[in-house]
Amino acid sequence: MLKQFQLKQKMNKSIWKGKYYQKSFILILLITSVPGLVVGVGTYWFGVDNVENDLREDHQQHVEQQASHINKQFEDLEMTISHWGFESFFNNELGSVNFVRDFKTSRNLTQNIFLLQESNPLIENVAFYIKSDRHLLFNPEYSVLSKEDSTTYESLLSNSKNIYWHLETDRLPGQKGPGQFSLSLINTIPAGSPNPYGSLIVRLNREKVNQILESLNPYRDGGAFLFDGNKVIASSSGLHEASLEQEINAKIAQQSHPQGSFIYKLDGHNYSVSYGKINRLNQEWTYVSVSPMSAIIEPMVILSRMILMISVTGLLLSVLMAWLASRKIYAPVENLLKVFTDEDHALRNQTSDEFQIIKDKWRTLFQESQQLHEQVKNYGPELSQGFLTQLIQGHLSHYNEEGLRERLESFGWETENLHYLIMDVQLTGLEDIQGRFEASDEGLITFVASNIAEELAKTKFNKVHIMNFHDLSMGLFIVENNNLSIDKELLEFGEELTNAINQILNMKVSITIGRKTESLTEIPYLFEAVKQGKYFRTFENQNQIINLQDFQHKRNEYYYPFTIEKEIVQALRVEEKENLNDLIRQFIEELVMRKMKENEIQTGIIQLFSSIQGEILHSGIHPYELFDGRDMVKELSQLREPEGIIKWFINDVIAPFLQKLEGRKNREQKRIVEQVIQSMKENYMNDISLESYADMIATNPYTLSKTFKQTIGINFIDYLTELRMEKAKEMLTGTEMKINEIAEQVGYRPSYFNRIFKKNTGLTPSSFRQNQKLQEMQNDMGSKKLPK
Question: Which residue ranges does the record assign to the HTH araC/xylS-type domain (predicted)?
Answer without folding.
Answer: 674-771
